[in-house]
Automatic annotation (TrEMBL):
SUPFAM superfamilies: HD-domain/PDEase-like (SSF109604). This is HD domain-containing protein. Residues 36-128 form the HD domain. Pfam families: HD. It comes from Lepraria neglecta. It comes from the Eukaryota.
Length: 228
């Protein structure tokens, strides 16, 4: 794989290409400050962690960067025909939005690279699957997980508090915990049918009046249909 230009961002060496700059602009345009900063930290933490894991060193750096930066496009605040739909869960909206972005901005990419970005975004909330896929998908998920878990619970202990503090100083958290709660509750109110199969539904059941997972879980469907 040909080398790509790099730069230091919050002390982390990251690739620096026109495509990544375009991905940053797209994320900035559609996400609020909390979600945007989370996406950037997930990118940086993923690069820190992956640099310490030999099996991830040969991943496609541009694929990893684009997937991390765009992984929460489905959290766009206002319904948009460009990205956010009424009928798809936010991971699908994000993955499809990234794929459309790549069709326009990365015409030289083959289908495999585009699919890796799609998979990394579509599966980023399902670590039990994502962590067993290609290096780009794994590294993207590791970085996202680290932003929620913190250094003490980051995969393999591969994120130090010193590294964490440098990144967070450059890209503040801005109240991520409450921000994610607000976003997930909004999804539960605005398009509840898309939240029954992901973690957003857990926020709905706890915080959104009238919302319930009862009758919407897989076990409810299987046992209701019981054909013997």
């Amino acid at each position: 794989m040909a080398p790509v230009p790099t730069r230091l961002f919050a002390g982390v060496p990251v690739p620096d290409t026109p495509l990544i700059s375009a991905a940053l602009a797209l994320s900035r345009r559609h996400l609020n400050n909390i979600a945007y900063n989370h996406s950037i930290r997930a990118w940086l933490f993923g690069f820190i962690i992956a640099s310490k894991i030999p099996s991830l060193e040969d991943r496609d750096l541009e694929v990893h960067a684009v997937a991390a930066i765009l992984h929460d496009l489905g959290w766009a605040e206002k319904e948009s025909g460009e990205i956010v739909t009424q009928e798809k869960r936010f991971e699908m909206d994000g993955a499809n939005g990234a794929r459309e972005f790549l069709k326009g901005e990365a015409s030289d990419w083959d289908k495999h690279r585009v699919q890796l970005v799609w998979d990394a975004i579509a599966l980023h909330t399902v670590t039990s699957i994502a962590w067993h896929k290609e290096p780009e998908v794994v590294a993207t998920s590791y970085g996202i997980n680290a932003d929620f878990a913190g250094p003490d619970r980051a995969v393999g202990g591969h994120l130090s508090w010193d590294e964490w503090n440098v990144v967070v100083k450059e890209v503040p958290r801005l109240g991520l915990t409450q921000g994610v709660r607000d976003i997930c509750c909004r999804l539960c109110r605005e398009k509840p049918d898309t939240t029954y199969g992901n973690f957003a539904g857990q926020y709905g059941e706890r915080y959104v009046e009238g919302y319930t997972l009862r009758g919407k879980r897989s076990i409810d469907f299987i046992e209701a249909v019981d054909l013997g």
